[in-house]
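Homework help thread (please don't just give me the answer)

Our assignment gives two proteins as sequence + structure token strings and asks us to describe the second one. The first is just a warm-up. Here they are:
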Amino acid sequence: MADRIASDHESMMTFRAPLETVGRTDRVKVVLPPELDVVVDDVLELILDGTSYFALVESTLEADCVLRRATDNRRQAREADGENRLAAWVDDADVRVGGTVHLDVVTPGHAYGLRTPGTRVVYEATDPPADSLADIAADLDGE
């Protein structure tokens, strides 16, 4: 059974993450703080309004780690396929490009939550997949 943890719990680590656009486009990106335990090409669980999606950690020309998309599964995240749930969340949430969002560390290196500043969210913390399971999944996906 997964543990439940509130975004305002004293053990929750929260960062303010800039919400920017990709170059001169209207596509959004979330700039990840350098303190996070993530690297480029990691696929993370990204929780938006209580729903889990998956996001590929990408790099900018300035070598910042960013999230540009959230999708329904890991394969879509790696292949930049499927509906961009992050863009839809930004459109629906009370956030703006040029501002910040709150990035909650639900499970370090595995699961993170995005929320509108000032809101409270309760997350279900899950364990990251075992390396052997991740390797099996990558093999099944043809990597």
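The one we have to describe:
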Amino acid sequence: MFDYRLEHMFSVSVGTLRMARIGSVPEGILNDCAFTGGEVTGPQMRGSLRPEGWGRFLVRTDGVGIVDVHASIDTEDGALVAVMYYGRLDLGEDGYPTYLQSGLEGFLPGDIQLRLSLHFHTTHSNYRWLNRVQGLGIGLIELARSVVIYDVYAVR
């Protein structure tokens, strides 16, 4: 067994989540995602999520959702940090046909657990250490409110 620890860096509360269905592709159903910004709070970073971020959400035929997001964080002390994350969520065995038939609304009112792998890029001297960090995100998508919330941990 390998020695490691998880260190909470910050939490993210994404503003309103908007999705637009691109349609059926060979891998499943592809969607564009956008959000209206968000808040970043925590012991190692505080600031806001810029609204220019974008993402893709793929609902695979096995009911697994794949998330691919590119965003930027404006920190309270003037840094700009790019963050990319990739993750998956389990929509259940009937996730694909339900989504195909009714879209995201078909999953209401439940919440979907979210697991993310994050990495960062910045040139700001206060946050260069992030360039060496593997991030782990644990959270959920609250479908009823169209928001995403997650905690970010450094894997050390």
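TA reply:
I won't write it for you, but here's a hint about the kind of observation we're looking for: The domain at 6-155 is CATH 2.40.160.20 (Porin).
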